[in-house]
Specification:
By secondary structure, the protein is of the alpha/beta class. The protein is built from 11 helices and 7 strands. Helix 4 runs parallel beside helix 5 and helix 9 packs across helix 10. The longest helix is centred in the middle third of the chain and has 29 residues. The termini are far apart.
Length: about 260
């Protein structure tokens, strides 16, 4: 039976690839995003599903689009909170408003979408949430303070929601490393991301497969195998981990003088 899957940030990158793989499995992807032209183009490529224009930071738009989707499709089986963005830069490179804007999209956008869906799922008798977080939400990273903070928040929300509503509502969070998306192609003009890591970017197809596995086989948290060692080192030997991270980002520290 085809599942109805609501995907925020569905017009490009990871969201688009998730929609493509869902289509291949016979599911019905419903794409959400702010750019109508991009959403329409992706939906026409897929030849399946639907799209809805929505800014996840605006509560009124979120509630309206969820109501419209439920009215049109009767139910939603899965919500994938994928909408998000980030920028590289030192902690002082961003204003408080920029920190706030990133938090509103990456964290509060997912919260608003989930809260809008919860009453429907409780009445329906179940549902699934897959939140696309980041490895940066498990370990602070130089030049990503604002982004990492938003992903830490998303992971904390996901874990709390899981404990509160399982097994009726299944909540999973995916924590990929750097992915081949516009985030890493165009948001690092100062080359603040180490070249050694840039060569190890994950393909969106790999990340999408992990997301679909979370739907099929729900788990609280999924970390790509290539990065599990780093998280284990951080947990078991935090001093060593911080030393390694400091050395990895030495290029940035040598070429950027912080002014206080």
């Amino acid at each position: 039976m085809s599942r109805v899957v609501l995907i925020t940030g569905g017009s490009s990158g990871i969201g688009k690839e998730i929609a493509r793989q869902l289509t291949m499995r016979g599911d019905i992807p419903l794409l959400l995003g702010r750019n109508k032209a991009n959403l329409k183009r992706v939906q026409e490529e897929l030849k399946r599903g639907d799209f809805f224009v929505c800014d996840v930071t605006k509560q009124g738009e979120v509630e309206a689009v969820v109501s419209k989707v439920i009215k049109r499709y009767g139910s939603v089986d899965v919500l994938i909170n994928n909408a998000g963005y980030g920028r590289f830069g030192g902690a002082l490179d961003f204003s408080p408003d920029e920190y706030r804007a990133m938090m509103e999209t990456n964290y509060l956008g997912a919260v608003q979408m989930t809260l809008a869906m919860l009453p429907h799922w409780l009445q329906q008798g179940g549902g699934k949430v897959v939140n696309i977080a980041s490895i940066a939400g498990l370990s602070g990273t130089p030049n990503l303070a604002a982004y990492a903070a938003s992903k830490f928040a998303l992971i904390g929300f996901s874990e709390s929601l899981h404990l509160e509503y399982a097994p009726l509502i299944q909540v999973g969070v995916l924590c990929p490393g750097p992915v081949k998306t516009p985030f890493f192609r165009g948001e690092d003009p100062g080359q603040l991301f180490p070249p050694a890591l840039s060569r190890k970017l994950l393909d969106t197809r790999v990340v999408a497969r992990h997301a679909l596995r979370l739907i099929e086989h729900p788990r609280m948290k999924v970390i790509p195998a290539s990065l599990r060692w780093a998280i284990r080192v951080r947990s078991w030997f935090p001093g060593l981990y911080h030393h390694m991270t400091h050395r990895l980002y030495s290029r940035w520290q040598q070429n950027h003088k912080l002014e206080v």
